[in-house]
Design brief:
The protein has helices at 50-55, 91-94; strands spanning 2-3, 12-26, 29-43, 75-78, 86-89, 97-110. It has 111 residues and is mainly beta. The radius of gyration is 23 Å and the shape is elongated.
């Protein structure tokens, strides 16, 4: 599943693979193998106020906070990552992305 989002920096791409296999070792014994992989790649937008949304609903021209268009959402983050001073950054500058992977593998032996 993929989507571009309606505002800038809000796209996502999620992929899932499911597999289930069974092997009959004998007529009474089976081995089952199950695999599930989920990948999520997402760009997270900065939360906006209602005024920011009304001024720039699609957040166009918001790549860099210093030259951002009117109404762009920004977040104040520490300049060096852990202590004052803070600087305004857009979602792109702050690196608001998620790249997650979840895996499940299982093996079952039974009759």
């Amino acid at each position: 599943m993929r989507g571009d989002g309606y505002i800038s920096h809000s796209a996502f791409n999620t992929q899932t693979i499911n597999a289930l296999g069974t092997y009959a070792v004998t007529p009474n014994d089976r081995v089952k193998f199950k695999v599930i992989n989920n990948w999520v790649f997402a760009n997270l937008a900065v939360r906006q106020s209602l005024n920011q949304f009304e001024a720039n609903p699609f957040q166009r021209g918001c790549a860099v906070a210093a030259t951002a268009a009117f109404g762009c959402g920004t977040v104040n983050l520490f300049a060096n990552g852990f202590s004052a001073p803070t600087v305004a950054q857009t979602a792109e500058q702050a690196g608001f992305r998620r790249h997650d992977t979840r895996r499940h593998r299982g093996l079952a032996l039974g009759a």
